[in-house]
What we know:
Chain A is 77% helix and 0% strand. Chain A is an all-alpha fold.
Amino acid sequence: MYEFSTLGWVRHVVFHPSEGFEDLRWKKQGSVTAALVIVVLLFIAMVANNRMVGFAFNTNTVKVFNVVPLVVQSVVYFITWCIGNWCICTLLDGEGTFRKILIYSAYALVPYIFCSYIAVFISNFIILDESIWYTFFTYLGLGWSVVLMISAMKAVHQYSLSKTLLSILLTLIAMLLILFLAILLLSLFQQVYVFVYTIYTEIAYRIRG
Amino acid sequence: MLIYRTKTEFIKEKGDNTVNGYKPTPLRRLIGLAAAFCTAFTMSVTAFADEPYESYNYDNWDDAIPSQTGYTVDRVVSGLDMGLKELSTPGSPVFISEKESSSLNEARDIYNYNDKELWIADSTNNRVLCLDSDFHIKGCYKEAGGKNLKEPMGLFVTDSPTTGKQTVYIADSANERVVRATVESPTELKLEQEYTRPTEALYTSTTYNPSKVVVDYAENVYVVVKSVNTGSVQFKADGTFMGFYGANRVNVTAKVIAQKLWRKIASQQQIEGMQRSVPVEYANFDMDSEGFIYTVTEIMTDTDAVKKINPAGYNIWEAISDERFTFGDHTENVSNLATKTTIATKLTDIAVDDNGLINVLDFDTGRVFQYDKFCNLICIFGARNSTGDQRGAFATPNAIETFGDKIIILEGSKTRNDITVFKCTAFGNQLHKAFSYYDDGLYTEAVPYWNEVIKRDGCYTYAHIGLGKADLKNHDYKSAMKRFKIARSRKNYDKAFEYYRDEWLQQNFTAIAVVIIVLVVLAIVSKILKKLGISIFKKKAGKGEN
């Protein structure tokens, strides 16, 4: 029983929200490569949402396209989620390793990614009066992924449902903290860089005379 | 510009050669001098023809983008050009006295009487002037009803619907009255009615300084009074006070909300000590040919900056659509670090012409914003200049008025007093024609004008929308979609796409139907085959099967 390929496992967990991740854990399955591919697909979905959505549906400012916010919104958020979750759940007697958290979280994102591709695709064929389809697919993917994510966290750490929800809440707070510290660090380093650069310019001017 | 520049460089090179390479003979020198003179001459001409402002327009992201000039300065008419000398020349028909000033002095208002006469409220000179269509003096009025005019701030001239006589309404500010008088001769007014401070308890303000006046077709008089913020004061023709008309609303800011909350918990004494949040009174108004009154308010605000009000006193533009109309510059306040001043939008006057074009004058930037009757921004022109010593730039632009297809701006400061007449450029003419057809829904008729507009300014958003709508009307949906995409008009694009999709479905219905039928048949056949246990394709063993 449960002899799937990597893709088969992804399909299995997506369509079995309550049991899928437990099976995955039981069978010691899941691949980091697949997880990373999913994260890349998430990033591409973000870009597609920004650039390829039907013209009438595109409310983004597309005068200037900047890829950095999209990288942050997909890859950086995901990695922060994994780190935050790992930090919190190590303290809360979770059983998941970092590797497992990464894999399970990525698998849980699949419906969201898939549905946003569908939404982007159909938005090129529908008019604003039929925008209910676009909204439907967006929210379907989002809701499904949220359910899967809770199930994944529950399975990976072997928590009860209430403890899972608590850990997710704490993870979100941890993410905020991490991002805050990261920005702080970044701006500090930037100041150090500016300081060093000023000294360099000063010395350079003096040497040149 | 470009041609002249290259010419200069060319001549410059020649000049260098003369100095370095060749022996400067007298003839060469003469040629060089002539060339230099020519350059200087062409240069001055070029500078002369340029406007002191850079025309721009707004794209769909509210970014200012350069555009062509819609209006250019036709001429500047000072008191001397108007022939105000005649006022102090004995024997002339408009002779007043020997000491009568021959220039304007801080004039505050102008009014266009049926494109035949231009009336000026020459405030500090305490007189009202009447100019003919060539802006030459035709009449001068210093008193009405045995009382000298004192700081007349506003004017309204019309043919009375009851008597048919030319009737002048003057907001005689310092005398605390509005005068209705008929024109008898070039120097004489006959007083018909005075509109003085209402005695009713409803009028709570202690002062009564009328600054602007407008009269509707039923001869009701609307007066903007300084320090009255409950709207304009409305009188019947016979002088009875009728109430207030078209008040502004309070601009809801965080401060106002906080005050409202504090009021709930504060004691009576505290409330009395608090500042009250009151609306701002409007600065000026105008009436269009249909009798609607337009108001402007001199403050950087989105609420009620410009209004078109119906007889009940409500803003029509607010009621007709969910769109928000913006007037003036779209940018936030600009602060100038050098002079430590902040430039904010300060809409001071409005003029609506017979075609419904709305011109709004911004006092702080000296710019005129022209809109069509649906508040689509047509063009922007004019500039602010602290000394106001350039044609087309102003230090104190006090009033704007349309005169035929021309636009007149009244400059009234201590140092400069004149009127500047703007005329339409070729670009502006095309715009007006295009917009007049476009606003009437005659999209196809507007096409040649929009094409001319695009030739001169390819970024002009409404041109693309107009052409797109024409395409839509001609069932050329694909082209319409392309146009709307350029103009970034999502709603119009959606409409075009809807038609395009319908058309496509209709044309390709047979093909689509065939494909669907084939798919259904295939599905049924494969089901039957499966039931019978016949497999066409070899199945992969194991994987994917439980």
